[in-house]
Amino acid sequence: MRVTGVIRIAAMLFSLGTMWFFAQTYFNTSWKIVSLRSWRDSSPGLANEQNAAKAQLPRNKCNNKRSCPENSFAFRVTSGAANVVGPSLCFENTILMSVVKNNIGRGLNIALVNGTNGQLMKTASFDMYSGEIKNLLSFLKEISSGTIVIVSSYDDPATKLNEEARTLFTELGSSYASKLGFRDNWIFIGAKGLRDKSPYEQHLKNDAAQNKYDGWPEVLEMEGCIPKKMD
Ligand SMILES: *[C@@H]1O[C@H](CO)[C@@H](O)[C@H](O)[C@H]1NC(C)=O
């Protein structure tokens, strides 16, 4: 077997592993097992991609590299780029928040989605540099069980973040909320009722020696599939 084949299989097993992990911790409910075969068959390989291009087949949801198995939602989340380009949140092929939709802002951009049917419930943007932390706190406290929470940072996610807000994010499954700092980049998908850490999170520290932009780190992007909540 070619080395690239081995790597692809390792990547698929890893994807399945994280999905399984998330499912196990997700709302304490059972999760239908996706077989490796159906996963592989539904993920377009190079040949499939070339055929798809020829036949003009529909692209994957959110323009993702792989299609998502049944009983999961496709997502793609991008953080802001410095204080210049705003973040974007795609879920099941719908842009929930973006510059074009004109519903993003400096700080933390958050979309709430029903974990069972994928319906958008709410979007909101919280200025974490000069806004009121109480707005974010009341928003986070009102999230009901079974809700998927999608978060993307823009410019500065942390100046106003206090212990209470950090703890609320940690309870949604975040590993980095407790350490977020001034102008760090952060994208995160958690859920209310999650029993463990979410595998869907990326964080880049604002570090003058490493920053891609003058004063800000590189843009973060994450795509994948989230298991639906099974009742
Ligand atoms: C999500 O939608 C289902 C119906 O499809 C409903 O029963 C459930 O209460 C909703 N969950 C939340 C968190 O609103």
From TrEMBL:
Domain of life of the organism encoding this protein: Eukaryota
Transmembrane segments: 6-27
Domain ILEI/PANDER residue range list: 106-193
Any GO CC annotation of this UniProt entry: extracellular region
Chief site of localization: secreted
InterPro entries according to UniProt: FAM3, ILEI/PANDER_dom, ILEI_FAM3C
Key words of the record: Disulfide bond, Lectin, Membrane, Secreted, Signal, Transmembrane, Transmembrane helix
Compartments it resides in: Secreted
One Gene Ontology MF term: carbohydrate binding
Pfam families: ILEI (PF15711)
Family per similarity comment: Belongs to the FAM3 family.
Official protein name in the record: FAM3 metabolism regulating signaling molecule D
Source organism (scientific name): Pelusios castaneus (West African mud turtle)
